[in-house]
Write a structure and sequence with these properties.
This protein is of the alpha+beta class and 586 residues long. The chain is built from 15 helices and 35 strands. The two termini are 59 Å apart.
Length: 586
Protein backbone atom coordinates (compact mmCIF):
# COMPACT_ATOMS: atom_id res chain seq x y z
CA UNK A 1 0.00 0.00 0.00
CA UNK A 2 1.49 3.29 -1.05
CA UNK A 3 0.72 6.94 -0.50
CA UNK A 4 1.83 8.85 -3.56
CA UNK A 5 3.17 12.34 -3.18
CA UNK A 6 4.11 14.55 -6.02
CA UNK A 7 6.72 17.28 -6.01
CA UNK A 8 7.16 18.98 -2.63
CA UNK A 9 4.34 21.39 -2.05
CA UNK A 10 2.04 19.89 -4.67
CA UNK A 11 -1.18 18.06 -3.96
CA UNK A 12 -0.63 14.75 -2.10
CA UNK A 13 -2.96 11.94 -3.12
CA UNK A 14 -3.67 8.79 -1.13
CA UNK A 15 -4.28 5.64 -3.18
CA UNK A 16 -7.46 3.71 -2.47
CA UNK A 17 -6.51 0.29 -3.81
CA UNK A 18 -8.69 -2.54 -5.08
CA UNK A 19 -8.18 -5.59 -2.83
CA UNK A 20 -9.49 -9.09 -2.33
CA UNK A 21 -12.74 -9.00 -0.40
CA UNK A 22 -12.37 -9.46 3.37
CA UNK A 23 -14.58 -8.79 6.38
CA UNK A 24 -13.49 -5.50 7.95
CA UNK A 25 -15.00 -2.38 9.48
CA UNK A 26 -15.76 0.28 6.86
CA UNK A 27 -14.28 3.65 7.79
CA UNK A 28 -17.10 5.52 6.05
CA UNK A 29 -20.34 3.74 7.07
CA UNK A 30 -18.75 2.24 10.24
CA UNK A 31 -20.33 -1.16 9.58
CA UNK A 32 -18.47 -4.45 9.71
CA UNK A 33 -18.99 -6.06 6.32
CA UNK A 34 -17.15 -7.39 3.27
CA UNK A 35 -14.79 -4.65 2.10
CA UNK A 36 -13.22 -4.41 -1.36
CA UNK A 37 -11.12 -1.24 -1.00
CA UNK A 38 -8.48 -0.05 1.41
CA UNK A 39 -5.86 2.67 1.86
CA UNK A 40 -3.07 3.47 4.27
CA UNK A 41 -3.67 6.35 6.65
CA UNK A 42 -0.53 8.54 6.36
CA UNK A 43 -1.01 9.93 9.89
CA UNK A 44 -1.47 6.72 11.88
CA UNK A 45 0.04 4.26 9.38
CA UNK A 46 -2.95 1.91 9.79
CA UNK A 47 -4.93 0.35 6.96
CA UNK A 48 -8.44 1.78 6.56
CA UNK A 49 -11.11 -0.21 4.66
CA UNK A 50 -14.08 0.80 2.50
CA UNK A 51 -16.88 -1.61 1.70
CA UNK A 52 -18.49 -0.46 -1.57
CA UNK A 53 -18.22 2.12 -4.33
CA UNK A 54 -20.82 4.33 -2.64
CA UNK A 55 -18.62 4.70 0.44
CA UNK A 56 -15.64 5.49 -1.80
CA UNK A 57 -17.65 8.17 -3.62
CA UNK A 58 -18.74 9.68 -0.30
CA UNK A 59 -15.12 9.83 0.89
CA UNK A 60 -13.97 11.41 -2.38
CA UNK A 61 -16.75 14.02 -2.22
CA UNK A 62 -15.87 14.94 1.35
CA UNK A 63 -12.14 15.25 0.51
CA UNK A 64 -11.78 16.50 -3.10
CA UNK A 65 -8.33 15.99 -4.59
CA UNK A 66 -7.01 14.05 -1.57
CA UNK A 67 -7.81 10.44 -2.56
CA UNK A 68 -7.52 8.47 -5.76
CA UNK A 69 -9.14 5.09 -6.55
CA UNK A 70 -6.87 2.64 -8.36
CA UNK A 71 -8.72 -0.27 -9.94
CA UNK A 72 -5.73 -2.25 -11.09
CA UNK A 73 -6.42 -5.88 -11.89
CA UNK A 74 -4.37 -8.58 -10.23
CA UNK A 75 -2.06 -10.17 -12.78
CA UNK A 76 -2.17 -13.97 -12.46
CA UNK A 77 1.15 -15.46 -13.60
CA UNK A 78 2.38 -19.03 -13.93
CA UNK A 79 5.05 -20.22 -11.54
CA UNK A 80 8.47 -20.19 -13.18
CA UNK A 81 9.44 -23.74 -12.26
CA UNK A 82 6.37 -25.45 -13.77
CA UNK A 83 7.79 -25.73 -17.32
CA UNK A 84 10.88 -27.40 -15.86
CA UNK A 85 8.67 -30.07 -14.29
CA UNK A 86 7.04 -30.76 -17.62
CA UNK A 87 10.36 -31.08 -19.41
CA UNK A 88 11.63 -33.49 -16.76
CA UNK A 89 8.47 -35.60 -16.99
CA UNK A 90 8.75 -35.81 -20.78
CA UNK A 91 12.40 -36.89 -20.56
CA UNK A 92 11.51 -39.55 -17.99
CA UNK A 93 8.92 -41.06 -20.32
CA UNK A 94 11.47 -41.29 -23.12
CA UNK A 95 13.89 -43.21 -20.90
CA UNK A 96 16.75 -40.86 -21.70
CA UNK A 97 17.22 -39.62 -18.13
CA UNK A 98 18.75 -41.65 -15.28
CA UNK A 99 16.51 -43.12 -12.62
CA UNK A 100 17.23 -40.44 -10.01
CA UNK A 101 15.20 -37.91 -12.05
CA UNK A 102 12.07 -38.83 -10.15
CA UNK A 103 13.68 -37.88 -6.85
CA UNK A 104 14.69 -34.44 -8.16
CA UNK A 105 11.18 -33.91 -9.55
CA UNK A 106 9.63 -34.70 -6.19
CA UNK A 107 12.02 -32.28 -4.48
CA UNK A 108 11.07 -29.52 -6.91
CA UNK A 109 7.37 -30.21 -6.36
CA UNK A 110 7.79 -30.00 -2.60
CA UNK A 111 9.54 -26.66 -3.02
CA UNK A 112 6.57 -25.49 -5.13
CA UNK A 113 3.87 -26.41 -2.57
CA UNK A 114 1.88 -23.51 -1.14
CA UNK A 115 -1.51 -22.87 0.43
CA UNK A 116 -4.12 -22.27 -2.28
CA UNK A 117 -6.12 -19.07 -1.82
CA UNK A 118 -9.37 -20.70 -2.95
CA UNK A 119 -9.38 -24.28 -1.59
CA UNK A 120 -7.03 -23.55 1.37
CA UNK A 121 -5.12 -26.80 0.72
CA UNK A 122 -1.32 -27.06 0.69
CA UNK A 123 -0.41 -28.53 -2.68
CA UNK A 124 1.57 -27.87 -5.83
CA UNK A 125 0.31 -24.50 -7.12
CA UNK A 126 0.11 -23.46 -10.74
CA UNK A 127 -0.41 -19.69 -10.50
CA UNK A 128 0.57 -16.81 -8.24
CA UNK A 129 -0.17 -13.08 -7.94
CA UNK A 130 0.75 -10.21 -5.63
CA UNK A 131 -1.37 -7.97 -3.43
CA UNK A 132 0.91 -5.16 -2.24
CA UNK A 133 3.87 -6.99 -0.65
CA UNK A 134 1.97 -10.26 -0.15
CA UNK A 135 2.29 -13.13 -2.66
CA UNK A 136 -0.74 -15.42 -3.02
CA UNK A 137 -1.08 -18.74 -4.84
CA UNK A 138 -3.74 -20.66 -6.80
CA UNK A 139 -3.37 -24.40 -7.28
CA UNK A 140 -5.25 -25.07 -10.55
CA UNK A 141 -7.46 -23.69 -13.30
CA UNK A 142 -10.56 -24.87 -11.39
CA UNK A 143 -9.71 -22.77 -8.35
CA UNK A 144 -8.86 -19.83 -10.61
CA UNK A 145 -12.26 -20.02 -12.34
CA UNK A 146 -14.06 -20.23 -8.99
CA UNK A 147 -12.16 -17.25 -7.66
CA UNK A 148 -12.88 -15.30 -10.83
CA UNK A 149 -16.60 -16.04 -10.49
CA UNK A 150 -16.66 -14.86 -6.87
CA UNK A 151 -14.83 -11.62 -7.63
CA UNK A 152 -15.29 -10.81 -11.33
CA UNK A 153 -13.21 -8.21 -13.20
CA UNK A 154 -10.45 -8.31 -10.57
CA UNK A 155 -8.08 -10.77 -12.21
CA UNK A 156 -6.21 -11.00 -15.48
CA UNK A 157 -4.49 -14.20 -16.53
CA UNK A 158 -1.18 -13.66 -18.29
CA UNK A 159 -1.01 -15.89 -21.30
CA UNK A 160 2.02 -16.70 -23.42
CA UNK A 161 2.00 -13.56 -25.53
CA UNK A 162 2.89 -13.29 -29.22
CA UNK A 163 5.68 -10.99 -30.34
CA UNK A 164 4.77 -8.10 -32.61
CA UNK A 165 6.93 -9.32 -35.46
CA UNK A 166 5.13 -12.71 -35.47
CA UNK A 167 1.55 -11.41 -35.45
CA UNK A 168 1.22 -11.32 -39.23
CA UNK A 169 2.64 -14.81 -39.66
CA UNK A 170 0.42 -16.20 -36.93
CA UNK A 171 -2.81 -14.77 -38.34
CA UNK A 172 -2.07 -15.80 -41.91
CA UNK A 173 -3.68 -19.02 -43.11
CA UNK A 174 -0.84 -21.60 -43.05
CA UNK A 175 0.17 -23.68 -46.02
CA UNK A 176 0.60 -27.41 -45.38
CA UNK A 177 4.38 -27.92 -45.12
CA UNK A 178 6.34 -31.06 -45.59
CA UNK A 179 7.07 -33.18 -42.49
CA UNK A 180 10.77 -32.25 -42.59
CA UNK A 181 10.05 -28.53 -42.84
CA UNK A 182 7.53 -28.73 -40.01
CA UNK A 183 10.05 -30.45 -37.73
CA UNK A 184 12.68 -27.81 -38.52
CA UNK A 185 10.26 -24.93 -37.82
CA UNK A 186 9.18 -26.37 -34.47
CA UNK A 187 12.79 -26.95 -33.42
CA UNK A 188 13.87 -23.40 -34.31
CA UNK A 189 10.85 -21.85 -32.57
CA UNK A 190 11.53 -23.89 -29.43
CA UNK A 191 15.18 -22.83 -29.44
CA UNK A 192 14.24 -19.16 -29.86
CA UNK A 193 11.72 -19.36 -27.01
CA UNK A 194 14.33 -20.81 -24.64
CA UNK A 195 16.91 -18.16 -25.48
CA UNK A 196 14.56 -15.26 -24.74
CA UNK A 197 15.02 -13.56 -21.45
CA UNK A 198 12.21 -12.46 -19.18
CA UNK A 199 12.55 -8.84 -20.28
CA UNK A 200 12.22 -9.74 -23.97
CA UNK A 201 8.86 -11.46 -23.55
CA UNK A 202 5.85 -9.72 -25.04
CA UNK A 203 3.47 -7.41 -23.17
CA UNK A 204 -0.08 -8.52 -22.44
CA UNK A 205 -2.42 -6.39 -24.56
CA UNK A 206 -5.06 -4.48 -22.64
CA UNK A 207 -8.75 -4.89 -23.08
CA UNK A 208 -10.93 -2.03 -24.30
CA UNK A 209 -12.17 -1.32 -20.77
CA UNK A 210 -8.64 -1.21 -19.35
CA UNK A 211 -7.45 1.10 -22.11
CA UNK A 212 -10.41 3.43 -21.53
CA UNK A 213 -9.74 3.49 -17.77
CA UNK A 214 -6.09 4.37 -18.44
CA UNK A 215 -7.17 7.15 -20.82
CA UNK A 216 -9.57 8.62 -18.25
CA UNK A 217 -6.87 8.46 -15.57
CA UNK A 218 -4.41 10.24 -17.87
CA UNK A 219 -6.89 13.03 -18.65
CA UNK A 220 -7.64 13.46 -14.95
CA UNK A 221 -3.92 13.90 -14.22
CA UNK A 222 -3.93 17.16 -16.21
CA UNK A 223 -6.68 18.64 -14.02
CA UNK A 224 -5.20 21.67 -12.27
CA UNK A 225 -6.07 22.03 -8.57
CA UNK A 226 -5.20 24.58 -5.92
CA UNK A 227 -2.40 23.39 -3.64
CA UNK A 228 -4.15 24.93 -0.61
CA UNK A 229 -7.90 24.26 -0.93
CA UNK A 230 -7.68 21.43 -3.54
CA UNK A 231 -10.43 23.01 -5.63
CA UNK A 232 -10.20 23.01 -9.42
CA UNK A 233 -8.37 26.09 -10.67
CA UNK A 234 -10.23 28.24 -13.18
CA UNK A 235 -7.73 30.02 -15.41
CA UNK A 236 -8.18 33.78 -15.26
CA UNK A 237 -6.84 36.98 -13.73
CA UNK A 238 -7.03 35.70 -10.14
CA UNK A 239 -5.16 32.38 -10.24
CA UNK A 240 -1.43 32.37 -9.44
CA UNK A 241 1.51 30.05 -10.12
CA UNK A 242 4.29 29.69 -7.55
CA UNK A 243 7.00 26.99 -7.26
CA UNK A 244 5.25 24.98 -10.05
CA UNK A 245 2.04 24.91 -7.94
CA UNK A 246 -1.36 26.41 -8.77
CA UNK A 247 -3.39 28.61 -6.43
CA UNK A 248 -6.92 29.99 -6.76
CA UNK A 249 -6.07 33.51 -5.63
CA UNK A 250 -3.83 35.56 -3.35
CA UNK A 251 -5.69 34.40 -0.23
CA UNK A 252 -4.92 30.71 -0.86
CA UNK A 253 -1.28 31.49 -1.67
CA UNK A 254 -0.94 33.57 1.50
CA UNK A 255 -2.34 30.75 3.65
CA UNK A 256 -0.01 28.22 2.04
CA UNK A 257 3.09 30.39 2.45
CA UNK A 258 2.21 31.06 6.08
CA UNK A 259 1.72 27.33 6.69
CA UNK A 260 5.10 26.21 5.31
CA UNK A 261 7.11 29.32 6.18
CA UNK A 262 5.84 30.82 9.42
CA UNK A 263 9.29 30.47 11.01
CA UNK A 264 12.77 31.13 9.64
CA UNK A 265 14.80 28.04 8.76
CA UNK A 266 17.99 29.51 10.27
CA UNK A 267 17.06 31.51 13.38
CA UNK A 268 13.60 29.90 13.84
CA UNK A 269 12.10 33.31 14.47
CA UNK A 270 8.74 34.48 13.15
CA UNK A 271 8.91 35.65 9.54
CA UNK A 272 7.52 39.20 9.08
CA UNK A 273 4.82 39.68 6.49
CA UNK A 274 6.92 41.73 3.98
CA UNK A 275 9.58 38.97 3.98
CA UNK A 276 7.10 36.15 3.39
CA UNK A 277 7.91 34.84 -0.08
CA UNK A 278 10.65 37.40 -0.75
CA UNK A 279 13.27 35.28 1.07
CA UNK A 280 11.70 31.94 0.11
CA UNK A 281 14.07 29.75 -1.94
CA UNK A 282 13.83 26.28 -3.40
CA UNK A 283 16.57 23.82 -2.35
CA UNK A 284 16.11 20.55 -4.20
CA UNK A 285 12.74 19.07 -3.26
CA UNK A 286 12.23 21.46 -0.31
CA UNK A 287 10.97 25.05 -0.20
CA UNK A 288 12.56 26.99 2.67
CA UNK A 289 11.55 30.37 4.11
CA UNK A 290 13.92 32.86 5.77
CA UNK A 291 13.29 36.08 7.62
CA UNK A 292 16.09 38.14 6.02
CA UNK A 293 18.96 37.95 3.55
CA UNK A 294 21.49 37.32 6.34
CA UNK A 295 19.74 34.12 7.44
CA UNK A 296 19.48 32.97 3.83
CA UNK A 297 23.20 33.47 3.21
CA UNK A 298 24.07 31.73 6.47
CA UNK A 299 22.01 28.69 5.46
CA UNK A 300 23.62 28.47 2.01
CA UNK A 301 27.16 28.45 3.38
CA UNK A 302 27.20 24.84 4.57
CA UNK A 303 24.66 23.41 2.11
CA UNK A 304 25.72 20.79 -0.45
CA UNK A 305 23.28 18.43 -2.18
CA UNK A 306 23.46 15.86 -4.97
CA UNK A 307 22.56 17.49 -8.28
CA UNK A 308 20.43 14.50 -9.29
CA UNK A 309 18.61 12.99 -6.29
CA UNK A 310 19.02 16.09 -4.03
CA UNK A 311 20.41 14.01 -1.19
CA UNK A 312 22.11 16.10 1.51
CA UNK A 313 25.85 15.43 1.28
CA UNK A 314 26.98 18.35 3.44
CA UNK A 315 28.32 16.00 6.11
CA UNK A 316 30.44 12.98 5.22
CA UNK A 317 32.82 12.08 2.43
CA UNK A 318 30.46 10.35 -0.01
CA UNK A 319 30.04 13.39 -2.28
CA UNK A 320 32.31 14.26 -5.21
CA UNK A 321 32.58 16.72 -8.08
CA UNK A 322 32.37 15.62 -11.72
CA UNK A 323 32.07 17.41 -15.10
CA UNK A 324 28.72 16.58 -16.73
CA UNK A 325 26.51 17.82 -19.55
CA UNK A 326 27.39 19.12 -22.98
CA UNK A 327 29.20 22.07 -21.36
CA UNK A 328 31.04 19.81 -18.86
CA UNK A 329 30.14 21.89 -15.83
CA UNK A 330 31.25 20.57 -12.45
CA UNK A 331 28.40 19.33 -10.27
CA UNK A 332 28.12 17.58 -6.89
CA UNK A 333 26.93 13.96 -6.80
CA UNK A 334 26.45 11.33 -4.13
CA UNK A 335 27.17 8.27 -6.32
CA UNK A 336 28.31 7.20 -9.78
CA UNK A 337 24.73 6.15 -10.64
CA UNK A 338 23.42 9.68 -10.03
CA UNK A 339 26.27 11.15 -12.07
CA UNK A 340 25.53 8.85 -15.05
CA UNK A 341 21.81 9.55 -14.87
CA UNK A 342 22.33 13.32 -14.71
CA UNK A 343 24.84 13.19 -17.55
CA UNK A 344 22.50 11.18 -19.78
CA UNK A 345 19.68 13.65 -19.18
CA UNK A 346 21.74 16.80 -19.76
CA UNK A 347 23.99 15.58 -22.59
CA UNK A 348 21.95 14.97 -25.76
CA UNK A 349 25.11 14.41 -27.86
CA UNK A 350 26.15 11.38 -25.85
CA UNK A 351 26.79 8.24 -27.92
CA UNK A 352 23.79 5.94 -28.16
CA UNK A 353 24.02 2.57 -26.46
CA UNK A 354 23.14 -0.71 -28.15
CA UNK A 355 20.43 -3.03 -26.88
CA UNK A 356 17.91 -5.55 -28.17
CA UNK A 357 14.81 -3.96 -29.69
CA UNK A 358 11.60 -5.16 -28.01
CA UNK A 359 9.84 -5.47 -31.39
CA UNK A 360 12.26 -6.53 -34.13
CA UNK A 361 14.59 -8.29 -31.65
CA UNK A 362 17.70 -6.85 -33.36
CA UNK A 363 20.72 -5.53 -31.49
CA UNK A 364 20.75 -1.86 -32.57
CA UNK A 365 21.31 1.62 -31.06
CA UNK A 366 18.45 2.54 -28.74
CA UNK A 367 16.43 5.42 -30.16
CA UNK A 368 13.28 5.25 -28.01
CA UNK A 369 12.78 4.08 -24.41
CA UNK A 370 9.58 3.58 -22.43
CA UNK A 371 8.93 2.68 -18.80
CA UNK A 372 5.80 0.53 -18.51
CA UNK A 373 4.66 -1.17 -15.28
CA UNK A 374 8.11 -0.76 -13.75
CA UNK A 375 9.95 -2.33 -16.72
CA UNK A 376 12.07 -0.63 -19.35
CA UNK A 377 11.54 -1.44 -23.04
CA UNK A 378 13.98 -0.32 -25.74
CA UNK A 379 13.29 0.30 -29.42
CA UNK A 380 15.54 0.91 -32.39
CA UNK A 381 13.18 3.24 -34.27
CA UNK A 382 9.86 5.08 -34.10
CA UNK A 383 8.05 2.51 -36.32
CA UNK A 384 8.90 -0.24 -33.83
CA UNK A 385 7.72 1.96 -30.99
CA UNK A 386 4.46 2.72 -32.81
CA UNK A 387 3.84 -1.00 -33.34
CA UNK A 388 4.46 -1.62 -29.63
CA UNK A 389 1.98 1.08 -28.62
CA UNK A 390 -0.64 -0.26 -31.02
CA UNK A 391 -0.39 -3.84 -29.77
CA UNK A 392 -0.15 -2.87 -26.08
CA UNK A 393 -3.02 -0.36 -26.42
CA UNK A 394 -1.33 2.40 -24.43
CA UNK A 395 -1.04 6.20 -24.61
CA UNK A 396 2.51 7.29 -23.78
CA UNK A 397 3.85 10.75 -22.87
CA UNK A 398 7.44 11.87 -23.30
CA UNK A 399 9.38 13.25 -20.35
CA UNK A 400 10.55 16.81 -20.97
CA UNK A 401 13.89 16.10 -19.25
CA UNK A 402 15.15 12.57 -19.96
CA UNK A 403 13.08 12.14 -23.19
CA UNK A 404 11.89 8.70 -22.08
CA UNK A 405 8.28 7.73 -22.67
CA UNK A 406 6.04 6.70 -19.78
CA UNK A 407 2.41 6.10 -18.95
CA UNK A 408 1.07 9.01 -16.97
CA UNK A 409 -0.80 8.17 -13.77
CA UNK A 410 -3.15 10.34 -11.77
CA UNK A 411 -1.18 9.80 -8.56
CA UNK A 412 2.28 10.44 -10.05
CA UNK A 413 1.63 13.51 -12.16
CA UNK A 414 4.60 15.86 -12.35
CA UNK A 415 3.78 18.87 -14.50
CA UNK A 416 5.00 22.43 -15.07
CA UNK A 417 2.68 24.98 -16.66
CA UNK A 418 5.00 27.75 -17.86
CA UNK A 419 5.73 29.64 -21.04
CA UNK A 420 2.22 28.80 -22.28
CA UNK A 421 3.24 25.16 -22.67
CA UNK A 422 2.63 22.08 -20.56
CA UNK A 423 5.72 20.05 -19.71
CA UNK A 424 5.33 16.57 -18.19
CA UNK A 425 7.93 14.51 -16.32
CA UNK A 426 8.24 10.83 -15.49
CA UNK A 427 9.67 11.30 -11.95
CA UNK A 428 10.15 14.08 -9.44
CA UNK A 429 13.92 13.80 -10.00
CA UNK A 430 13.47 14.69 -13.68
CA UNK A 431 11.23 17.61 -12.70
CA UNK A 432 13.79 18.89 -10.21
CA UNK A 433 16.71 18.54 -12.66
CA UNK A 434 14.68 20.43 -15.28
CA UNK A 435 14.16 23.28 -12.81
CA UNK A 436 17.89 23.40 -11.99
CA UNK A 437 18.94 23.32 -15.66
CA UNK A 438 16.36 25.79 -17.00
CA UNK A 439 16.03 28.30 -14.18
CA UNK A 440 17.12 31.86 -14.82
CA UNK A 441 17.52 34.99 -12.73
CA UNK A 442 14.77 37.59 -13.16
CA UNK A 443 13.87 40.80 -11.34
CA UNK A 444 10.73 41.52 -9.39
CA UNK A 445 8.61 43.98 -11.35
CA UNK A 446 7.99 46.05 -8.21
CA UNK A 447 10.98 46.02 -5.80
CA UNK A 448 13.54 44.85 -8.44
CA UNK A 449 14.95 42.11 -6.19
CA UNK A 450 16.55 39.30 -8.24
CA UNK A 451 15.48 35.67 -7.82
CA UNK A 452 15.08 32.53 -9.90
CA UNK A 453 12.02 32.53 -12.12
CA UNK A 454 10.56 29.41 -10.47
CA UNK A 455 10.70 31.18 -7.07
CA UNK A 456 8.64 34.10 -8.39
CA UNK A 457 4.86 34.50 -8.24
CA UNK A 458 3.58 34.24 -11.81
CA UNK A 459 0.31 35.90 -12.78
CA UNK A 460 -1.34 36.39 -16.15
CA UNK A 461 -3.36 39.62 -16.22
CA UNK A 462 -4.80 41.21 -19.35
CA UNK A 463 -2.43 39.28 -21.66
CA UNK A 464 0.50 40.57 -19.58
CA UNK A 465 2.83 38.31 -17.57
CA UNK A 466 3.55 39.57 -14.06
CA UNK A 467 6.49 38.27 -11.96
CA UNK A 468 6.57 39.31 -8.30
CA UNK A 469 8.84 38.11 -5.49
CA UNK A 470 6.15 38.20 -2.78
CA UNK A 471 2.49 38.85 -2.14
CA UNK A 472 3.43 42.16 -0.55
CA UNK A 473 4.91 43.39 -3.83
CA UNK A 474 1.96 41.98 -5.76
CA UNK A 475 -0.44 43.86 -3.49
CA UNK A 476 1.45 47.14 -3.85
CA UNK A 477 1.52 46.63 -7.60
CA UNK A 478 -2.24 46.14 -7.61
CA UNK A 479 -2.72 49.27 -5.48
CA UNK A 480 -0.67 51.32 -7.93
CA UNK A 481 -2.73 50.09 -10.87
CA UNK A 482 -5.99 50.81 -9.05
CA UNK A 483 -4.75 54.20 -7.89
CA UNK A 484 -3.77 55.20 -11.40
CA UNK A 485 -7.05 54.04 -12.92
CA UNK A 486 -8.99 55.76 -10.09
CA UNK A 487 -11.70 53.13 -10.36
CA UNK A 488 -14.77 53.39 -8.17
CA UNK A 489 -15.01 50.67 -5.49
CA UNK A 490 -17.26 49.88 -2.56
CA UNK A 491 -16.07 50.94 0.88
CA UNK A 492 -15.38 47.90 3.07
CA UNK A 493 -17.04 49.63 6.04
CA UNK A 494 -20.08 51.57 4.87
CA UNK A 495 -20.40 49.93 1.43
CA UNK A 496 -20.57 53.32 -0.26
CA UNK A 497 -19.57 53.33 -3.93
CA UNK A 498 -16.79 55.92 -4.22
CA UNK A 499 -13.14 56.38 -5.12
CA UNK A 500 -11.03 54.78 -2.35
CA UNK A 501 -9.07 57.31 -0.30
CA UNK A 502 -7.48 54.95 2.24
CA UNK A 503 -6.08 51.43 2.11
CA UNK A 504 -5.46 48.93 4.90
CA UNK A 505 -3.29 45.80 4.48
CA UNK A 506 -4.64 42.61 6.09
CA UNK A 507 -2.79 39.54 7.40
CA UNK A 508 -3.73 37.44 4.33
CA UNK A 509 -2.06 40.02 2.01
CA UNK A 510 -5.43 41.34 0.84
CA UNK A 511 -6.29 45.05 0.70
CA UNK A 512 -9.29 46.86 2.23
CA UNK A 513 -10.58 50.11 0.69
CA UNK A 514 -12.26 52.98 2.58
CA UNK A 515 -13.89 56.21 1.47
CA UNK A 516 -13.11 58.31 4.58
CA UNK A 517 -10.83 58.23 7.59
CA UNK A 518 -13.82 57.68 9.90
CA UNK A 519 -14.60 54.40 8.06
CA UNK A 520 -11.01 53.26 8.62
CA UNK A 521 -11.31 53.86 12.38
CA UNK A 522 -14.68 52.14 12.61
CA UNK A 523 -13.33 49.11 10.70
CA UNK A 524 -10.28 48.82 12.96
CA UNK A 525 -12.42 49.06 16.10
CA UNK A 526 -13.97 45.66 15.27
CA UNK A 527 -10.72 43.92 16.32
CA UNK A 528 -9.36 43.25 19.80
CA UNK A 529 -6.67 45.92 19.81
CA UNK A 530 -6.89 49.68 19.51
CA UNK A 531 -6.71 51.11 15.96
CA UNK A 532 -3.25 52.10 14.75
CA UNK A 533 -2.85 55.82 14.11
CA UNK A 534 -0.01 58.29 13.90
CA UNK A 535 -1.44 61.13 15.92
CA UNK A 536 1.78 60.91 17.97
CA UNK A 537 4.68 60.18 15.59
CA UNK A 538 7.26 59.71 18.34
CA UNK A 539 9.37 56.51 18.24
CA UNK A 540 8.03 55.48 21.64
CA UNK A 541 4.47 55.56 20.34
CA UNK A 542 5.39 53.54 17.27
CA UNK A 543 7.23 50.97 19.41
CA UNK A 544 4.24 50.60 21.71
CA UNK A 545 1.97 50.11 18.74
CA UNK A 546 4.29 47.44 17.35
CA UNK A 547 4.36 45.62 20.68
CA UNK A 548 0.58 45.75 20.89
CA UNK A 549 0.06 43.86 17.64
CA UNK A 550 -1.68 40.54 18.26
CA UNK A 551 -0.28 37.08 17.53
CA UNK A 552 -1.36 35.36 14.33
CA UNK A 553 -5.08 34.67 14.37
CA UNK A 554 -5.73 31.02 15.20
CA UNK A 555 -9.09 31.06 13.37
CA UNK A 556 -7.50 32.21 10.07
CA UNK A 557 -9.65 35.39 10.06
CA UNK A 558 -7.60 38.21 8.47
CA UNK A 559 -6.75 41.18 10.68
CA UNK A 560 -4.97 44.50 10.02
CA UNK A 561 -1.18 44.19 9.99
CA UNK A 562 -0.12 47.78 9.42
CA UNK A 563 -1.11 51.40 9.49
CA UNK A 564 -3.77 52.80 7.16
CA UNK A 565 -2.28 54.52 4.13
CA UNK A 566 -3.52 57.26 1.85
CA UNK A 567 -2.48 57.17 -1.78
CA UNK A 568 -1.05 60.29 -3.40
CA UNK A 569 -0.49 60.06 -7.12
CA UNK A 570 2.51 61.22 -9.07
CA UNK A 571 2.11 62.44 -12.64
CA UNK A 572 2.79 59.38 -14.78
CA UNK A 573 5.17 59.66 -17.70
CA UNK A 574 3.88 56.56 -19.53
CA UNK A 575 0.18 55.82 -19.25
CA UNK A 576 0.62 52.06 -19.73
CA UNK A 577 3.18 51.51 -16.96
CA UNK A 578 2.20 51.17 -13.27
CA UNK A 579 3.16 54.17 -11.20
CA UNK A 580 5.07 54.12 -7.93
CA UNK A 581 2.80 54.93 -5.01
CA UNK A 582 3.89 57.55 -2.51
CA UNK A 583 2.19 56.47 0.71
CA UNK A 584 1.74 58.68 3.72
CA UNK A 585 0.88 57.17 7.08
CA UNK A 586 -2.29 58.50 8.53
Amino acid sequence: MQTSTTETGSTPKIIIAWILSSTQKCIQCENEKTCGFRYKNPESGNLEYLCEQTCCDALLSANPGKYFIRRKKFLIEELSNEPKDKDVAEKGNDGSVPGDTGKSTEAEKEANMYSCLQCKEVKVCKYFFRQDDEQLYICSDICYNLLNLEEPDKFKLKRHSIRVRNIGATLTTPVAPSPGALTTAVTSASTAAKTKSTRDTGVVARTTAEAEAARIERNASFLRRCAECFNEVTLGDKNLLWETMDFCNEICLGKYQRTIGANCQTCHGEVPHPALGKYCVRFGFDIRQFCCAACLNEFKKGLKTCSCCQKDISSGSEGFLAPVGDKEQFKDFCSQACMRRYDSMCNPKKKLRNDTCAVCNNDKPVRVEIMLDGKEHNFCSNPCFSAFKFVSNIVADQCAMCSKYFERKGTDSFTIYTERRTKVFCTRICLNVYIIVNRRIVSCQWCKVKKYNFDMIYKQQDSQEILMCSLNCLTLYGVSINAFSRTVANCDNCNTSATPQYHLTMSDASMRNFCTYQCVMQFQSQFARAPLTLENDSPATQQAAAVGQPAPNKSNVPFPTGLPKRVKLKIPQQSKQPIQVNTKNI
